[in-house]
Give the backbone structure.
Amino acid sequence: MIFALIGNQNCGKTTLFNRLTGSNQHVGNFPGVTVEKKEGRIIVGKKHEKEINTVVDLPGIYSLSPYTSEEIVTRDFLINERPDGIINIIDATNIERNLYLSLQLLELGIPMIIAMNMMDEVRESGSFIDVKKLSFELGIPVVPISASKNEGIAELAEQTLKMGRDAIPPKKLDFCSGEVHTAIHSLAHIVEPKAVKKHIPVRFAATKLVEGDKPMIEKLELTDNEIDIVGHVVSEMEKKTGTDREAALADMRYEYIEKLVADTVVKGERNPAQLRSEKIDSVLTNKYLAIPIFLFIMFAIFAITFGPAGTFIGDLFSAGIDWVIVSVRSLLVNLEINPVVVSLVADGVLSGIGSVLSFLPVIVILFFFLSVLEDTGYMARVAFVADKLLRKIGLSGKSIVPMLIGFGCSVPAVMATRTLSSERDRKFTMALIPFMSCSAKVPIYAAFTAAFFPEHGVWVMSLLYVSGILIGIISALVFKKTRYKGNPVPFIMELPSYRFPSLKNVLLHMWEKAKDFISRAFTVIFFATVVIWFFQTFDFHFNVVVDSSQSMLAAIGRFISPVFVPLGFGNWQSSTALIAGLTAKEAVVSTFAVLLGAQGGEVSVALSELFTPISAMSFLLFTLLYTPCVATIAAYRRELGSVKGTVGIVVYQIAVAWIISALFYQTATLLS
């Protein structure tokens, strides 16, 4: 059986999904975490082990109207896939708003169960929800749970499977009254034959026609005459209710919800979590303090990550990697293995992969703090605060979510633009994401900072991140006047209550990033280092070279290197490393490790042979801004659906990177 997990944004949906399936999906305390539907198998005791029951985690939505990509994904799945049941998760602390979606889901006639989440917070506030009466009134099972504390999950799973096996549709579908009732039932009779033929619930189809839902009109293939009848019925309803079609439906639903809540909910004092959040927000979202506090928090994170503590841990890790490389080399030499093979394993594979893995502690520490910020709910406040600033450059605050994800990895960030309501905002945001420095660039920053700016590492690191943001802002101002004219859509975002970060969620997020980093090291980076080693070891006649400057790689690098002369790094090693960086940004460091014959932490020392502090900073600026990895380019191609648009973004990135780096190097050289 297949069950759809549906609810409003930030109601604990992904947490519940993880509880039901044992999955390890990323859980965040800000809206828009789920971008695509995710699937997992329900795990419920030994007696159900042989059953294959799938739960599909759908994006968070507030209605079934096709206004956003999340709503379209959810709606299409429910209508086209017709799951065996719906698990509708509700935030019990905000029951009125959550029930609005529930009423729409009931109209689909699919077996449904409500998971009343955050009941622990309801109890803390002294409130009471009569779950049995609520279940009776709605005509479906209602199970109280607390997903974060694993309360009621087993009962919910059992009830869900029972619901699916019994296949009993909701007992009550009609919540309307007055003129809206008349309009819906009139249209239901008119469209019933076509709705049945298209396998669309009649009640749902009629309601959508009252709303003026264009996709539904197209799906039902209504004739001009039928469309005229729909228009006439709706006009009569609007005239008698004195309001427009959508407002009339909303009023009708909320009128029912208010009566239902009055009969089933006894509200105590205000939720302690909400009161606590309001006090914290009076400072963190203050008109004057919000931005300085955010900058201070980020600077503090960089100071810990790239300061003495992070450096000490990183050095220990690098020393361990160096020991492994030396030990393997000694073992191979003692076994009298062919020198070329020894070079491949030690100088190619191990040095390349080791140089990247030596920065794993930095990645883990950085994402520990970012995960804490996200899990507490602070990142949602950043989006709220950023809205006013982003509007000045042509975007809404909602664009901040993909951009924040971009600091982790550009691929999911590009995918996250699906949560934006308009096509203009989506493409606009996508064009700016590469300026947000992804975690794959951290090893490059760390290596160069250790080599040339050891006393000022925190400031250099902060400067790079800020530079990317500032150049993104300048690009946005240009795009606003040229390619993406117009205004952003209105921004509405629910601010979740502040919560103490869950150690499990934080560790899970850290593990995800570490796993991704390690998997890249042993896949893309492994392949890249072997290729780099091969081209560096042989000439065009496939003879082993004594000096790598006579290799095929050197010849290719020299052909490209003149382009980088104005930027201060016109050597063939740098141009080769930048090309390798297109596979994955971590490959820049591993390539230098192979070319310079350096192991683990020795890469930073070896770099001083190729760069001066000024040219090193120029190189850092170029790597900050130039084309993302091929995986990101592929994501652009998929999301934009256009080769031309993808090429345009890539060319623009390279041009901006070259111009900024050249300006910096030439100016700094003149002033020095």
Remarks:
- The mean pLDDT is 83.
